[in-house]
Specification:
mainly alpha; 3 helices; 66% helix; 0% strand
């Protein structure tokens, strides 16, 4: 028999969860904008370098959130690119 627990989260403005979610969304959008340009090919190493050297330096409020939380945006973007290009290869066959 499987058991499940359903938990409803209702964060308020002062909680860390809102900042973390906003930071991940902002980071993802910044990375997507940067790597959507033809002169910037995507790789995980390039994404981590751009994140550490540019995004975290440009936006000081990133310092309030753990590096690992906002670095998840890089993994999400990598997954999105992989799925997109895999779908494109299937159509060519």
């Amino acid at each position: 028999m499987l058991l499940a627990h359903k938990i409803e989260l209702q964060p308020n403005e002062a909680q860390y969860l809102n900042k973390a979610c906003d930071t991940v969304r902002h980071c993802y959008n910044q990375l997507l904008e940067h790597f959507s340009k033809k002169e910037n090919p995507f790789s995980l190493k390039a994404a981590y370098n751009f994140y550490k050297n540019t995004i975290r330096e440009q936006f000081e409020w990133y310092q309030e959130i753990s590096f690992h939380v906002s670095a998840n945006a890089i993994q999400d973007l990598n997954s999105g690119f992989q799925h997109f290009f895999r779908r494109g290869k299937r159509r060519k066959r």
